[in-house]
Amino acid sequence: MSIEELKNVFDVGAVILLFLTFAFGAGAYYTGSIINGRQASQIRKFDSDLVAAKTDLEKQQQSTAEAQKEAAEAQLALKKYIDEVANKQRPRAMPDEPTLKILKAAPPKKAIIEYLDGASDTYLFATGLSIVLARAGWHVMLPLRPLSTLVGAAGGGTAQGEVIVTMRRVQDLQLPSTAEGALWNALLAAQVPVGGAQDETLADDTIKITVGPKF
Known about the structure:
By secondary structure, this protein is an alpha/beta fold.
């Protein structure tokens, strides 16, 4: 083979090699673009799934927080209801302190104590009240008077309360230095709902106390 023929072979080989280089480069670029596209799609899908998962987690956390809040509120409401029921069932009482101190700050009077018959709580409270008044120097009229009804017990007035204090001058309730005012404040100190009524037929030195059922 002559030199010229050998050169032609090399020239053809160079062309073929250049073509193959271009073809393989194009193929690599094309397949790389496809792979990159698939990877980008997978990344976008992963990001989208991640955002959706975070959103669902936030919703679940919010729902959990709301449920916990509602449960806590329900527990507080239940506790409040149980405390109210227990308080209603707990017998009323006139503690020695501070009621005695309040009562002894004013001149004592006579006390007529009435109670609604048929309920043990009214009798027990009326008895306890009579003992406290006696210790404070009051003259309690005995025996205590049972009532079959509270209608008219406040002298025909509209006083409301678990205990109704009836006196000759209802304005005396506003004066702590009076027996009426001291009795009123003592009942309030014992957390007893109390109402006031006026009966001008009562003697000036006498107060009527009517014990009704617990609210």
